[in-house]
Specification:
With 375 residues, the chain is an alpha/beta fold. Helices cover 40% and strands 17% of the residues. The chain has 15 helices and twelve strands.
């Protein structure tokens, strides 16, 4: 069968399979049982992928479920891996080998099931059959409501990651850095020089707010505390702007202003909020409307990015980017449940990450080089 035929079959049976997959995944999830380190990898098309995965999966703890056409490649490059094959050469053989594979999987147990077929509803169904402690996989940019319900952890359209890095992240997720993104941002930041463009003056504008529908891109209260403690030694006034007092972090900044009297909180409605951002000599914010307003007018800006991409909207030449650049980011936003199950690693900047980034911006002009700003 051709890939187009397989895709058409998948589309035809997509919705009932997805529903069944979710039900089965809950029924077959066994968190409290120890299945050792056994891992099931599901990847149908693309024999070359297994060459790329060879250094990772070539041992007996891995079982690979794939199509029969990939058998020769697996035997050549991963002779130690266990295999389950589906024969897609005809509808009859496809049906028979699916039944055989399903019976095998229903009798099997794994510590982890990894689905590398992001678009395939059938792959999700297959992933749901064995007993497993966890399931992970790749989602796509369309933000399916099924994926957060089905997976313990997933990556969203990881186009900038190599195949081995994708697999490593799905097998043993950690808050690891995407070096490609990190190097690109370093190159961008090296071209940014606020102080040759503008006299920053005695005050800095801070805009911590973003849409209430996308709160996962916000910095934590602790991060803002670190930032304000750093800045208070450089500027006479830290002007924190909100469009209204309903913002979830408004009360935090009111409390922080009692500790740091240099903080001046302004809440004067949306129109004045925009005007204040436009008047900034230097803005510190997150990926938000304030950032886009500043970039529209090429205002010097330090922007903290969490789950979104700095390249999602045209990156201004006068915007200094601070990002953890994690393998799982960008995951975009507005998911029913976050791909990381709400851990939000990308927005949890460590103190040293903040101070090192701010040192890179301010140390030359202000001779500032703090390793710690917390008491």
């Amino acid at each position: 069968m051709t890939p187009k035929q397989l895709i058409l079959i998948d589309i035809f049976i997509a919705f009932p399979l997805k529903v069944l997959s979710i039900i089965l995944s809950f029924c077959r999830r066994t968190k409290n049982k120890d299945y050792g380190s056994s891992v099931l990898i599901i990847k149908f098309l693309g024999a070359g992928n297994f060459v790329a995965y060879a250094d990772i999966i070539n041992n007996e703890k891995f079982t690979v479920l794939t199509v029969l056409n990939n058998k020769a490649t697996l035997q050549k490059f991963t002779p130690n891996v266990k295999t389950i094959f589906i024969d897609e050469s005809s509808l009859l053989k496809l049906a028979m080998t699916i039944i055989q594979s399903s019976i095998i999987l229903l009798r099997s147990s794994f510590s982890l099931v990894v689905n590398l077929e992001s678009e395939s509803s059938f792959a999700k169904f297959i992933s749901s059959l064995p007993r497993a402690n966890r399931r992970s996989g790749i989602s796509n940019k369309h933000k399916s409501i099924f994926d957060p319900l089905f997976y313990s952890f997933f990556l969203v359209a990881p186009a900038l990651l190599s195949r081995p890095l994708v697999l490593k992240a799905l097998i043993a997720y950690d808050a690891n850095i995407n070096l490609d993104i990190k190097e690109a941002l370093i190159a961008h930041n090296n071209e940014v020089d606020f102080f040759s463009v503008s006299d920053v003056g005695d005050s800095v504008i801070i805009a911590p707010t973003c849409s209430l529908t996308d709160a996962n891109r916000r910095l934590t209260d602790q991060s803002w505390q670190v930032i304000c403690r750093y800045l208070v030694g450089l500027f006479q006034s830290l002007v924190v702007v909100f469009p209204n007092s309903d913002d979830p972090q408004y009360d935090f900044f009111v409390t922080l202003s009692k500790e740091i009297p240099e903080i001046d909180i302004q809440v004067d409605g949306y129109k004045q909020f925009v005007e204040t951002v436009l008047s900034a000599s230097l803005l510190i914010t997150i990926d938000s409307q304030a950032l886009h307003v500043a970039q529209h007018k090429n205002i010097p800006t330090i922007a903290f990015y969490g789950p979104t991409s700095p390249y999602g909207v045209e990156l201004g030449s006068n915007t200094y980017v601070i990002s953890r650049s994690l393998l799982c980011s960008p995951c975009t936003h507005k998911y029913l449940r976050l791909p990381c199950q709400g851990e939000n690693y990308c927005s949890q900047f460590r103190e040293y990450e903040i101070t090192e980034a701010l040192n890179a911006v301010f140390s030359k002009k202000y001779n500032r080089n703090w390793s710690s700003v917390m008491p």
